[in-house]
Structures are given as C-alpha cells and as structure tokens.
Amino acid sequence: GESVGLHLPTLSVQEGDNSIINCAYSNSASDYFIWYKQESGKGPQFIIDIRSNMDKRQGQRVTVLLNKTVKHLSLQIAATQPGDSAVYFCAENRPGGYNKLIFGAGTRLAVHP
Amino acid sequence: ETGVTQTPRHLVMGMTNKKSLKCEQHLGHNAMYWYKQSAKKPLELMFVYSLEERVENNSVPSRFSPECPNSSHLFLHLHTLQPEDSALYLCASSQGTSGTPSVFGPGTRLTVL
After folding, report:
1. How far is the C-alpha of A65 from the C-alpha of A54, rounded, in Å?
2. Quick one: closest CA in A to B100, which residue?
3. Predicted local confidence at residue A101, as pLDDT
4. What are the pLDDT digits (tens) for A67-84?
5. Of A105, A75, A88, A99, which Cα lies nearest the Cα of A3?
6. What is the pLDDT of residue A99?
7. Cα(A21)–Cα(A15) distance, rounded to whole angstroms?
8. Closest Cα to residue B22, out of B113, B85, B99, B105?
9. What would you report as the CA-atom Rg of chain B, rounded to the nearest whole angstrom?
10. Which residue, A90, A21, A83, A6, is CA-closest to A49?
11. Going by fewer Cβ within 10 Å, which terminus of chain A is more open, N or C?
12. Which member of A42, A45, A105 has the closest CB to residue B42?
C-alpha cells in the first residue's frame, strides 16, 4: 500500500552539529511535501514545505531536499540547538480531494549539550 | 499560542460515557480538521469541514460524531468508545481549499477505560 516512512526512528546529535532527518515516500504523483515538528505536549508545527517542481528549499537554519528519482525527502537542521529536540514528521500530499495528506511515522531528534 | 485551542487537554472516560471535545480557531480560517494520533500509527485524518460543511469522512466509526456550528468552532462528540480509541485527538485549521492543515491545536489526550 501507499505509505510514507522514516528510516531512523531516533536521532541523537550534539548541540551545534548539523542534523539530517530522512523520509521515503511511495506515491510518485505526490506534488507537495511538508515537514512538521512536534514538541512534547504540543500539536505538530509546520516547519517548511517544498513542491515537486523543486529539489531544494531553504528556510531559517533548515533546508529540505527532494529527490524524486528515488522518492526521498530530507530535512537538514544547521547548528542544532536543544530547542530543536522534538519529533519530526514528513508528509506527502497526493493530488485531489481533502484526504490527501499522508504522514510518516516520525523521527525523534534528541540534542545533547 | 498557535491560534487553535482545544478543550479539555486531558479526558478519561468509560466505554459507556458520552463526552465532547471542543476546538476553536482564532485565525479566520475556513477549514477545520480532526486528526487522530496514536502510539502505533502515523497521524490519521478523521474529518474535514470546509465552510462549515463536512467534505471528508475518512471511514471513521459512527461512535465519533463531528459538529461544526460555525467556521471558528469544531466539536467531536464521543459515544460508547472502545479502549483502542485512546489517543491524542488533534484539531487543525487552514485557509482555502488546499486540504492541507496549516495550524494544529495542542490536542486532547483521551483515555478510554
């Protein structure tokens, strides 16, 4: 079946290092991808998105890379800070209708001082 | 805060109880969503309301009954739930017809005994 999955359920990094969180998606028709951050006790928070006609998009300390050939998405966080500790979800958006945003299982990022 | 509030934040109920979850958005959005987040599955869409009309019912059992009296308020009425319904229930909102939630509330942690 169609699914969005994450390679690493937990990622531990040192404060100041760069973090890379990976995601695989399976629907080649997906046209839009989103990364969310969910801190403990809170709902998911939009971080950055990218459309399928792009392969890279940069935000503040975050970069999303899209490789449509291998259906792979990654989130890079530069100079990771303790406040970045959270669960990160990727989501793929299938064209058409409202029931079209498919979430991945999530990766927990733990930042150590 | 995110602009989307949910009450209560925590709820414990028996299988024969009737309870309601409330969501309110202060962002002027015209679409509202209910999602279920359980420990064993990725985030799952339950219902979508656009301009107060239900546009998506993602095969949710009838023991969950949504209500959207206006564009700012969304309810989820619960009746004769099962222990496997224990989860975090997230409300979200967005503007337009993209079907992609842009702002999530903090969620209601539901435990069914």
Report:
1. 9
2. A101
3. 86
4. 999 999 999 999 999 999
5. A105
6. 61
7. 16
8. B105
9. 13
10. A90
11. N
12. A105
N- to C-terminal Cα separation, chain B: 31
Residues of A in contact with B107 (CB under 8 A): 42-43
A94 in Cβ contact with A100 (< 8 Å): yes
**Helix (H) or strand (E) run with residue A77 in it:** strand A72-77
Cβ within 8 Å, pair A89-B90: no
Q: For residue A8, what pLDDT is reported? A: 47
pLDDT of residue A13 exceeding 70, the answer is yes
Instruction: List residues bridging with A6 in a β-sheet.
Output: none
> Which region, left, alpha or beta, applies to residue A52 given φ > 0 means left and ψ of -120 to 50 means alpha?
alpha
Give me the count of residues in chain B: 113
Contact flag A99-B99 (C-beta cutoff 8 Å): yes
Q: Output the CA angle B19-A44-B82, nearest 5 degrees.
A: 30
- Of B2, B42, B106, which has the smallest distance from its Cβ to A41's Cβ? B106
pLDDT at residue B40, as a whole number: 77
